[in-house]
Amino acid sequence: MDNLLSILIFLPLLGGIGCFLAPDSAAKGVALATSVATFLLSTLLWADYDPYGPAFQFNEAVAWLPDLGISYAVGIDGISLLLILLTTLTMPIVVLAATPYISKRLGHYLGWMLVLEMAMIGTFAALDTFLFYVFWELMLIPMYFLIGIWGGERRIYATIKFFIYTMAGSLLMLVAFLWLYGAFADQHSGTYSALITDLYGLDLLPSAQYWLFGAFALAFAIKVPMFPVHTWLPDAHVQAPTGGSVVLAGVLLKMGTYGFVRFAIPLFPDAAVAFAPCIGALAVIGIVYGALVAMVQDDIKKLVAYSSVSHLGFVMLGLFAMNSQGVSGAVYQMLAHGVSTGGLFLMVGILYERRHTRAISDFGGIAKVLPAMSFVFMIIVLSSVGLPGLNGFVGEFLILLGAFEHSPWMTAIAATGVIFGAVYLLWMVQRVLFGPLTNPDNKALAGQDLTPKEWGYLAPILVLCVVMGVFPGPFLTVMEPSVDRLVEVMVSHADLPATWSAMPLPADTVAPVLQGGHH
Amino acid sequence: MTPMLSLAAVSVPAHLGADLLALSPVVVLFLSAMIVLIVEAVHRPQDKRVHLITTMAAIAGALALTVLVTADAVGSGFGGMVSFDQYAVFFNVAVLIASLLAVVVSPDYLARIGVPIGEYYALTLFAAVGMLLMNMASDLVMLFIALEIMSISFYILCSIKRSDPRSIESGFKYFILGAFSSAILLYGIAFIYGATGTVNLDGIRAAIAQGVDPHLLYAGLALVIVGFCFKIAAVPFHMWTPDVYQGAPTSITGLMATGVKVASFAAFGRVLVVGFLDVKDEWVGVLWVVAALTILVGNLAALVQDDLKRILAYSSIGHAGFLLMALVAVGDASQASGLLFYLLAYVFMSMGAFAVLTLFSFQGQDVTDVRGLTGLSRERPWIAAGLSLCLLSLAGIPPTMGFVAKFYVFSAAVSAGYTGLAVIGALGGALGVYYYLRPIVLMYMTPDGEPVPIERSPTVNGVLGLACAAVLLFGVLPDLIVPLAKAGLASLGG
Lengths: 519, 494
Fold this sequence. Notes:
The complex is a heterodimer.
Chain A: H1 4-21, H2 24-48, E1 57-65, E2 70-76, H3 78-98, H4 106-125, H5 129-138, H6 140-150, H7 155-187, H8 196-200, H9 206-223, H10 232-239, H11 242-267, H12 269-295, H13 300-319, H14 324-355, H15 366-369, H16 371-385, H17 391-406, H18 408-433, H19 440-443, H20 452-470, H21 473-493, H22 499-502
Antiparallel strand pairs in A: 1-2
Helix pairs in contact in A: 1-2, 1-4, 2-3, 2-4, 3-4, 3-11, 3-14, 3-20, 3-21, 4-5, 4-6, 4-11, 5-7, 6-7, 7-9, 7-10, 9-11, 9-12, 10-13, 11-12, 11-13, 11-14, 12-13, 12-18, 13-14, 13-17, 13-18, 14-16, 14-17, 14-20, 14-21, 16-18, 16-20, 17-18, 17-20
Chain B: H1 2-11, H2 14-22, H3 24-43, H4 49-68, E1 76-77, E2 82-83, H5 86-113, H6 119-136, H7 140-158, H8 165-196, H9 201-210, H10 214-232, H11 240-247, H12 250-276, H13 280-303, H14 308-329, H15 338-357, E3 361-362, E4 365-366, H16 376-379, H17 381-395, H18 401-415, H19 419-445, H20 458-476, H21 482-490
C-alpha cells in the first residue's frame, strides 16, 4: 500500500464521523472495528520498515499551499514508527474501557477519541511543519471535549487550563515556524519550503537559534510537561475520564518529547547544546519534585499524574544527555511510560468505578477481595517503578547510563527519583491493596473482580510490560539508526570530546543490539 | 437592464458603456433598492417577502455579474474614480456574500423582533452599494461618497427598531461617532489634496514621487488613518463598537461586523498601497502600534463580557488587529494577501455566529446573554455544532479557515520583519481562545440548567450550514482561495 500512512491517519477520522452519526449502541462496534483495523494496519508499518533504510520511509507528499512551499508530506522514522504503534495499540484499549463506564453520549465520546487518534498519528507522521502544526492543534479539540464533557467535577476549569496553556505555547511556536520559513526563503532566493528535511539544512546564527529554540522548547515543555509549566497536568488528569487520562498519559505527553526529537533539537542544534544543562537541570528538578509531590497525594489519580511529571523528567534528561544511550533510553522510556502509566490509569479507573472514590485512605486490603485485579495492578506498578525484567527498567537504566557520562552529579540526583518512585508507588500499593480489610465498603467489593473484558484489554499491557522488559532488542533495533542520526547532529554541534558519545555500552547488561550503532 | 446598457453604449463615448458594464453590480443593487422603496411606498405590501425576493435576487444578480462580467476586468473607469481590478472583485464578492447571508436570515428575525419594515431591505441594498463602491474607489472623493452611502444606511438600520431604546442608542452613537470620523477623514483628504493637488490615488503617488510638502501630506495622512481606524474599530477608536453592535438588530450587527469591516479594510488597504506605499516608513510605525493595541485590547476586553453580541463585538476588534498586521506587512511580504483571505474567512465565520444569534430573540427582545446557550447541545445539536465550529474558526484553530487566515497574516508580519508584532498577535490569539471556548463550555459541558427556548428557522440553518461548509472546505483546501487573494493584492501593484 503506497499510502499506508494516509490510510492510518484518515481511517480513524472516518470511524470518528461514523461514531458521531451512529446511535450509541452501534457506535461501540464502529469504534472498536476502526481502532482494531487501524492497529492491524499499523503493524504493516512495523513489518515493512527497514531500520537501515532511508531516514524517512512510507513517504507521501502532495502540494497543499504551493505558494508557501507547504505540502501534505508524511513519513516516519524508527522513533515515530514506535510512537504510532503505541497510539494505535492504546486506542482499542481505550475504546474497550469506555463501556460500561461512559454512560452519557457514548457515541460522541468514542467519536472524539477516534478524531484524537487521527490527530495523534498525523502529528507523529507529519514531515511538513505546517501539517505538523495543524495536527498538533487539532489534538486540542477532542481532548478539550473529552475532559470537558465526560470529566469530573472541576472539569471545566481543568479543560480550559489545558487548552490555554497548550495554545499559548503553540502560538509562539507558530511564530518561530514562520520565522524559519522566512529564513529559508532568504537563503534560497525566495523559494519557500515547510518540509522539515529542508529546514534541517538551514544555516542559522546561534543568536537566532536561541530565540527559536526557546519558542519551540516552551511549546514542547508545556506538553511534556516539564517543571515549572506542568501545573495543567494534574488538573487535567484528575478531571479527565479514565480513557482521557490513558490517552493523555500514554500518548499525548509524548508529543512534547517527540517535538524535541523531531524539531527543537535537530533544527537548532547549537541552541540545544547550549541549553542542555538548563534543560537537564529542569528535568532533574521535575524528577525529584514530581516524585516528592506524588508521595504526599491521597488521590491515586493525582499520584499517578505527578509520577508522570517525574517519569517524563527522565525522558528529558535522557534526550539532553546527547549520547546514544541517553536518547535510546529516552525513546524507550517514552514507550514504556505510555504502556505502564496508561495501565495505571486503567487500574485507577477500574478501582474507581467499583468504589467511587480515589482516596488512598478509603482503601486497604483490596487484595483480599479483588485478588486478580490486585495482581495486575501490582505488575503494572512494578513496571512503572522500574523493576528489572519489566519495561520501565530498560529506559531508566539507559537514561541514567547516558546521563552519567554527561553529568554525574545530575544523574546522582535523578537517581534518587528512582528511589522515590519506588517509595511512593509501593507505599500507595501497600495502603490500597494490602493491610487489614476494615472498611465495610471495601469488603462489599468481594466478587467484583476483573471481568473477562477487563482482562481482555489489560492483557496487551501486561504482555508488553514483560516483553519490553525482557526483549528490548527488537524495539531498540528499530529506533537505533534514527536515534543515531539525532545524536550525530547534536554531537557535531557540541564542543564535547567525541568520546562522550562513543562510550560503548556494557554489552551483556542490556541490549546487545546497541553495539552496532555507536560511532 | 440590457436595453439601458446598450443605449448608454450607443449614445455616449464608447468607454462609458464599458464602465457601466463593469459597474453593473452596483447599478443592479441601486435600481433594486429604488424598486423596493417605491413598491413599499406605493403598495405597502403586508407580506414583506416580496422585498426579500427582490433583495435576494438583486444581490445574487450582482454576485453573478461580479463573477461573470467583471472578474477579468482590468483598469479603471469614470475618469479614474473607480477601479475595476481583481482586488475590487475579490472584496465585492466578499461583501455580496455577507449581504446575502445577512438578508437571508432577516425576515424570520425581523418578524420576531416586530420590525416589519420594507425599507430595511432597501437600506441594506443601499449599504451594499456603498460597500461595493468603497471596494472600488480609487479616488478619495469617490471613497468619501461611498463611505457616506454605506454609513448613512447603517445609521438608520441600527436604529430601525424604534421601540427599543438600545436600538436608538446604537444608531445615535454610530451616527455621532461616524459623522465625527467622516469629518476627520474628509479633513485629511483636504490636507492631502492641498499637498498633492489631486484626490486620485495614482495621482497622489505620482505627486509624492515628485516631492510635496511633507507637513501637509503627513498631517492629511494621519487624519485619514484616524478616520479609517474609526471605521474598522481599531484601538483607541473602538469605543463605539460594543454598544452599537449590541443595540443594533442582530442581522444588521452581522452585516456591520462583516460587510463594513471588509469594505473599510478594502478602502484602507487601497489608499495605503496605491497612494502611500512609497512613504511606508512614515505610517508603518503608527499602524504597528495600533495593530498591537487593537489585538490586546480587543481580546482582553472580550474576556469579561457576558453578552454574546458584545463578545463578538470585542472579538471583531481583535480581528481588526490581526488584519492590521497584514497591512503593516503590505509591500514587504507577499503573504500580505492574507488580508483578503482573512476578510473572506471572517465573513463566513462571523456571519455563521451572528445567524445563530438571531435565534435568540423573544417577544421582540434580543436575549443574547451567553448563559442562554446552556445545554444547547442537547436541545439543538446541529446548531450547537455549527456555532462551535464558527467559534473555533474565529479562535484560529485548525483545520478551519480562521486558522489559515491567521497563519497568513502572522506569516506576512514575520516575513516582513515584524516578528515582535507577530508575538503580540500570538499572545492575543491565545487570550482570545478563552472567550471563544466559553460558549462551547456552556453548550456542551454545563449540566442541564433551564435552557432559554430557542427559535427555529430553516434560513438560519441554511446560512449556518453554508458558513460551516465554507469554513471547513477553505480551511482544508485554502488553495482554492489563496491564488485569488494573491492576484487581488497584486492587482494593486502592492
